[in-house]
Amino acid sequence: MIKDRKYCAHCGTKVINRNEGDIVRDYCELCDTYFYDNPLPVASTIVVKNREVLLVKRKFDPYKGQWCLPSGFAEIGESIQDAAIRELKEETGIVGKVIDNVNVNSTYNNLYGDLLFITYEAEWIDGQLMAGDDAEEVLFFPLEDFPHLAFDSNTVALKRYIESKKEYWEIVDSFKLSISNNKQNFKSGNFVSDKLIKIIENNADIIARRWLSDVITNNSTPTYATSDSEISLQRNLWVIGQFEKWLGGDYDNEELRKYYRKLGKDRKKEGFALSEILSAISLTRKYIWEFALSQQLWTSTIDIYMTLELERRMMLFFDRASFYAARGFEQK
User: Fold this and answer.
1) Residue of 137, 255, 290, 330 marked catalytic
2) What is the sign, positive or negative, of the torsion defined by CA atoms of 24, 29, 34, 40?
3) Could you tell me which residues come within 8 angstroms of residue 83 by beta carbon, excluding any fewer than 6 positions away?
4) How far apart are the first and last CA of the chain?
């Protein structure tokens, strides 16, 4: 337990309490010296690999047998960053490199008094993982299911770290899916941009009517001006529906190929030029894109990524649709 100061460490005179400004401090009249008691600095590190965090099971009291981040007091003459890396090496055997500060938290401990926890994110750059002299065990735990930690300050820092990485991980996961060849990945709910897909799905009629208003007056699609507008509208709603199904993983490339080859062949019989068919498909893409943009606030990195990811997914669908429609048109 923390003990009250009774005597001056320099001359042995009994200390008294004396105000310095608005703060009462220990004071030695003989030395004319105030004693300043400050929080003890504790350095902690967050090391994450494959979204698992490295934790240490404490070998001694306080909190023996409980898990915590690699942590320890800074020594005289070393920076707090150096203290964090030293404690990491002593407790886990690995050599780390400080990446960034994650959190600073003040707390009180019955044994040590006021503490100041400074937590850093660190990268494992060398060394072999092994429990140090003060640790029973060192293990990586999933970030979404880490155990109760001995120090509340560790918990606060780790939760702040997870929150700071949340959008980044969503983008990384979504990007990996977008370049994957695994059809199972292309399921609704797996992509960051699925939020926008839902908006498109709920507003398909608005998008289709904007498309129709353009396509019946556009110089690139003259035949649509003399066609039945209601039929054209329903056909465009069908195209938007195919796009939604494809993004949801319920519509594969073979179905897309068959549908658009038939579309190209049928429009040719109806007297449409190939350039009109391709222009109409392009305009569908345009109005889906413009509507999606109108729904975004662009307030964060993930908003921007969501929109760019949608654009890429649209490009994949409509480029294929245009190609297959052209092949169907050319079919004899």
Assistant:
1) 137
2) negative
3) 41, 43, 72, 73, 74, 75
4) 93
Both tokens of 331, joined, read 């079919």
Distance CA 262, CA 260 (A): 5
Catalytic residue check, 137? yes
Beta-carbon neighbour count of residue 20 at 10 Å? 10
3-class secondary-structure state, position 306: helix
Whole-number Å distance between alpha carbons of 44 and 119: 5
* CA distances from residue 58 to 40, 68, 134, 155, 157 in whole angstroms, order as listed: 20, 7, 6, 15, 18
Q: What is the DSSP string of 264-301?
A: HHHHHHTT--HHHHHHHHHHHHHHHHHHHHHH----SH
Distance CA 64, CA 42 (A): 18
Spatial separation of the C-alpha atoms in residues 200 and 208, rounded to whole Å: 10
Helix (H) or strand (E) holding 319: helix 301-330
What is the set of domains in the chain, with CATH numbers?
1-37 (2.20.70), 40-175 (3.90.79.10), 183-330 (1.10.490.70)
C-beta separation of 72 from 102 below 8 A: no
Question: Which residues in the chain show pLDDT less than 70?
Answer: 1-3, 175, 177-190, 296-299
Residues forming a β-bridge with 96: 124
User: In the block, which residue shows the tokens 């994650």?
Assistant: 102
Q: CB within 8 A of 252, min separation 6: which ones?
A: 183, 246
The pTM is what?
A: 0.65
Q: How many CB atoms within 10 Å of residue 70?
A: 29
* Residue 152 burial (10 A CB sphere; 0-12, 13-18, 19+): exposed
Q: What is the pLDDT of residues 220-256, one digit of tens each?
A: 999 999 999 999 999 999 999 988 888 777 777 888 8
Q: How many angstroms separate the CA atoms of 114 and 325, rounded?
A: 72
